[in-house]
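Sat 14:20. Reprocessing the chain from the morning session after the first attempt stalled halfway. Input below, unchanged.
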Amino acid sequence: MGGTKKLKPAENIGAGWLYFYVHFVTEVICFYCLEKQVGDSVFLWIFPFIYDALAFVPQSVIGYISDKFPKIQMGSIGIAMMAAAGLAFWLGFLPGKYTALIILCIGNACVHVNGAEVTLRCSDGKLSHSAIFVAGGSFGVITGRLLAKSVIPYWVIIILVLTGIPFVMLAEYYRKSADKSENPCKKFNYANEKIPAAAVIFLAVLIVAVRGYMGYGIPTSWNKTVFQSVMLYVAMGVGKAAGGILADRFGVKKTAMVSAAAALPFLFLGDNLMLVSLIGVMFFSMTMSITLALLVSVLQKTPGLAFGFTTIGLFLGTAPIFFFKFTTTLSNCIVIAILTVVCLVAMQFVIRKDVKAHE
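Finished this time. Tokens:
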């Protein structure tokens, strides 16, 4: 496709929507398979823990490989691996469930990395592209869980994930257009230039880890029905997308600080009030694309590696949940308040002042 024309930045938003769908079907098959397995009490926590470790942590390595060898079709490879894992869970032709789980996780990681690579390179320094891509996962997680409890068989889910391949191939058109620039990510300049790159990486990963841990402690006593669970994940997805879109419109630092602070009262007061809680969840989810933008700001030549750092932070934040949880609403609220202050201080320190995505 040597004749690919150079697209205008606004036109490249299509890459975000293409990978919204790819991310959606990725999480559908992953959480469909997980939900099918954890019905066995032996796998109740082991399977999800291994999934988090193998789907999140390797993304830094896969991302670096993708950065250095962009001709490798990570997205298509990942979808093929997840489809193969679905077949293995269904037909049992691989030795043990863990073999299929490993293949599923690596496939998931490949798709995530490619989605990040494409949307970041195409974004011209804007956050909305990758935010839309990331948002698709929230809708996929709840869909996969619900389908696993239905009569929908494995083969339908396998076909569904395979429908992502043409979307991946079309997204490559946007990437090739963006890669005509020597450094497609050069407009990511949201980190405080007075801070060393290593410190930016550390603080950004810390923010992701803290927010990942906080996400499991949000008081949601109201969440008792399927409809309420769906609304919770919808709020997460909408918040993730809105964070990037609002950062492009009003500025990265302002969006990060306001959304993190505004989430607190809604989360605290919404334990038994769904609508209030959902507003808090949306605010809480808005920083996702901002931490990624910080990392890309100091790793412009390796956006895949930058995305991998966010998933390492996510694993570090969620791993303790498998071994230790605060069991009361009061303790959760206290921890959320303390960690929010930590995030606000870190973001105030690490995000460059008065930077908007258009500049």
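The mean pLDDT is 89.
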